[in-house]
Amino acid sequence: MIRDGRLGKEFDSGVAAFTSSIDFDSALFEYDILTDMAHMVMLVEQDIVDPGDAGKVLSVLKKLLDGGIGSIDLSADFEDVHMAIEAYIIREAGDAGGRLHTGRSRNDQVATDLRMKARDDVLFLSKALTGLASAMLEAAEKHTLTLLPAYTHLQHAQPTTLGHHFTAYAESLLRSLDRLEGAYARVDLCPLGAAAVTTTSFPINRERTAELLGFAGVLHNSMDAVSSRDYMAEIAADTAIISVDISRICEELIVWSTSEFGFIELDDSHTSTSSIMPQKKNPDILEIMRARTASAFGGLISVLTMLRSLPQSYNRDLQEVSPVFFNTVDSAASSLVLLSRIVSSIKINSDVMNAACTGDFSTTTELADVIVREKNLPFRTAHQIVGALVSQVLDEGIASADVNSNLLDRIAKEVTGGSLGLSDETVRSALTPLLAVKARKVIGGPAPETMEKAISDRLRALSVIEKTISERETALRQSRKSLLSAVDSVLEA
Length: 493
Ligand code: ARG
Fold this sequence. Notes:
Fumarase C, Chain A, domain 2; 3 domains; binds arginine
C-alpha cells in the first residue's frame, strides 16, 4: 500500500517475512483501533477532517473492534498490524479511510499502542505480584510459632519461624510492587501527535487525544515521544528483579521438598512423576519456572543492547524491542500466578521444621547473650566460652539436652579461669529454640507478637496497593467507555 509511491519494486523475496512484525504486534490490535478512534475523533473536533468522512472511518473502526482480530488479514504481506488495519479501513471506508493517517505516523501510533499495552501489563504483573505476596503473608500468619532454622551460608544459624521467613519474601515482593507503581506513572504519558518525529503543521490537539486514551498527560518532546523505550528497560529491570525472587522461592521450595529436608510437600497437582520410577513426585513446575526466569534476565540485556546504539529518534530496531519486552513480562506474570497457587497449597510439615531446630546448637548465640546479660562479661568472652562448649560437646558426643550449668562452668573455668554460676534453668531456657525466638522482639525480629504486627502492617500495605491497582483499572475501563461515547457522538452528529 505505501510502496507504490517512492519505491519502484516490491520487496525482494523473503524480505517481507523477514521484516514484518505482524507475528507479535497483533497483540496491539485493540490498542491500535482505540488509538485510531481517538485520533479521528480529534481530527473531526479540530475541523481537520469533515464529519462525513470521519463517520465512515469510525463506523468501520467500531465494526472492527467488535469483530476482533479475526476480521483482518494478518499475512506477512503487511509490514505490521498498523498497515493491516489501515488496509482494512480503506477497503471498507473507501477514500475516507485514507484520511485517517492525517497528521500522524506509524511511529507515534506504535509508541502510543505500546504504552497502552504496557499500562495493562504493569497492572497485570502487579496483580500477579500481590497474589504471591498475599499467599506468602497468609501462610506467614498461620506460622508465627512454627520453628524453622534461619540459615546463613545454608548452615543452621539461629532458630526463627516460618512466618518470619515467608514475610522476608513478602517484603521483597512489596518493594517490587512499589517499583512498578513508579514505572506506571512514567508509562502513562501519550506520544500521539508526535507524528514521525517533529509533530505536524495540522492544528491537532495532543491533549485531547491523550485524554481520550486515558493517559495522565502528553509525552512532550516529539523526538523523545516516538523513540523512548526506557520504560520498557525499566519494567524489564523490575521484571528481572521479580524473577530473582521467583527463582529463589522456587529453589527453596524444591530443596524443602526433598526427602533430606522434608519441610514441605507440594500438592500433587503441582508435581510430575517419572515414566520409570513409580515412587517419584517431582517439582517439575517449579523447575520450569526457575529456568524461565532466564528469559527475564536475557530480556533485560536484549532490551538495553538494542537501545544503546540508537541515534535519535525512531529507528526500526525499536520494533525488535517489543516482542522481547512482551515475552519478558508475560513469562514472569504467568509464573507469579502459578507460584501463588503453589505456595497457598503446599503442605507444611511443622513437626519436621520444629525438629530441625532441636539439637543443632543454633541457640548458642542466645546462651552467649544470656552470659553477657547475667554476668556482665564482654560479648567476645561469652562467644569464646560458648564456642569451646560446643566444640567439647561435639567431641565428647554429649547430647545437647544434657548441656547444663556444671558443664558450662567447667568450660568457663578453662577459658577465663572463673566459673559463671548460672542456674540449670537459665542455661536450659537460653538453649530452648522457642524461647530464643520469643526473646527477639526487636523491630524485624521473629518474636510472635512482633511478627503478627509486621504481617498485619504488610497486609495493610498490600491492600493499599491493591486499591491503587483496581482504581487504575477502573479508570482505564472508564476512559475506554468515554472514548466509545465520543465516537458515538461523532456518528450521531
Ligand atoms: N512496526 C513498527 C514498529 O514496531 C512500526 C512502524 C514504523 N515503521 C517505520 N518504518 N517507520 O516499530
